[in-house]
Amino acid sequence: MIEVLVAMLVFSVGLLGAAGLMVLAARSNQVAYLRTQVTFLAQNMAERMQANPIGVWNGEYNGRYPDTSAQDCASGCTPSQLALHDRQRWSSQLKTFLPHVEASIRCSSEGLSHPPAREQLPLRPPYGGNCSMVVSWAERRLTEVDAPRQSFAWEFQP
After folding, report:
1. Contact indicator for 86, 68 with CB cutoff of 8 Å
2. Which residue from 56, 123, 127, 137 could staple onto 98, CB 3.0 to 4.6 Å apart?
3. C-alpha span between 98 and 7 (Å, rounded)
4. Phi/psi at 141 (5° precision)
């Protein structure tokens, strides 16, 4: 009888350990998913910016995200309107795919010895300057204000 009770105890401890490992694996999988989403969203915005260099160097993408801008470009846009449209779309994606997200983009052409003329901006290659993007989010959907946050920071040239 005692042997059966000891066997049941050992078996139940083993099952608890296996359940704990499954919970840990699920959390790790969610963390990996969120980090993949951040990388995808950052690359998405960098490509949008690369397609609109005039908007980038006019500072139209600089700011904090998500924002409440709204612009419809169905019938065409100026570079400024396209930047507003891109901001709206990216803000929507950030809110959809990441919990408790905050982001910022800052582009600067400081340090360039010969800044390009306005008519040269659409030409390739890029004329230097750097953009920095920072995205921070909570890895778990907690309601706590002080939930641990993760950050993704990227320096790039659009």
Report:
1. no
2. 137
3. 45
4. -80, 75
Confidence at residue 63, expressed as pLDDT on a 0 to 100 scale: 93
Handedness of CA 49, 51, 55, 58 (dihedral sign): positive
> What does each C-alpha distance from 15 to 7, 23, 41, 153 come to in angstroms?
12, 12, 39, 41
Q: How far apart are CA 61 and CA 107, in angstroms?
A: 8
H or E element at residue 26? helix 2-50
pLDDT of 68 reads 80
What pLDDT, on the 0 to 100 scale, is given for residue 73?
81
Taking the C-alpha atoms of residue 90 and residue 132, their distance in angstroms, rounded to an integer, is: 16
- Looking at per-residue pLDDT, the higher value among 18 and 144 belongs to 18
User: With 70 as the cut, is the pLDDT of residue 67 above it?
Assistant: yes
Q: How many CA atoms lie within 13 A of 127 on its CB side?
A: 19
